[in-house]
Amino acid sequence: MSAITPDVEFAIRQFLGHEAMLLDNGRLEDWVGLLAEEILYEIPLRISARKREDEFPKGAFRMHEDMAMIRKRLERMGTSENWAEDPASRTVRTVGSIFVEEEEGNGLYRVHSALSLYRQRAIDRAYEWIPARRIDRIRIDAEGKCRLVRRTIILAETILQTPNLAVFL
Questions:
Q1: Alpha-carbon distance 135 to 16, whole Å?
Q2: Is the pTM of this model over 0.85?
Q3: Peptide bond before residue 87 is cis, with ω within 30 degrees of 0
Q4: pLDDT above 80: residue 78
Q5: DSSP per residue over 57-122, as a string?
């Protein structure tokens, strides 16, 4: 593993902060612009187990989406059929505990982070808190522009306290 330069780490931190701001402000079309065409966005199913290596059944996902499915979700959000997000959630994302590793030496980085998502809907007094760890693959091109290639979200909870996962993590 080679050393990560301060410029690379700064670019990735800025990217993650910009992404959180876009999502919190409902700018989903702009957020999709940060994704690589070959994006894989997944949330593996997690079960309670005595051993950590047994927590994630192979091939079981709460969500497993590529660019076509993400675009379809956004298209559906613009219709009257979007009950899960009507009215839209108000969210605040905090991203921290960022650790960057160079993956293949070709501008691809493995980025570990912690996410804390606050979510409130309509006039509800209740709110939801969704804690998770994320493992991202981020590509930085020759111009220094970052693209999200893959995101794996590891939810802290095995039994979700939220009625849906209609927001992007």
A1: 12
A2: yes
A3: yes
A4: no
A5: -TT-EEEEE-HHHHHHHHHHHTSTT-GGGSSPPEEEEEEEEEEEEE-SSSSEEEEEEEEEEEEE-T
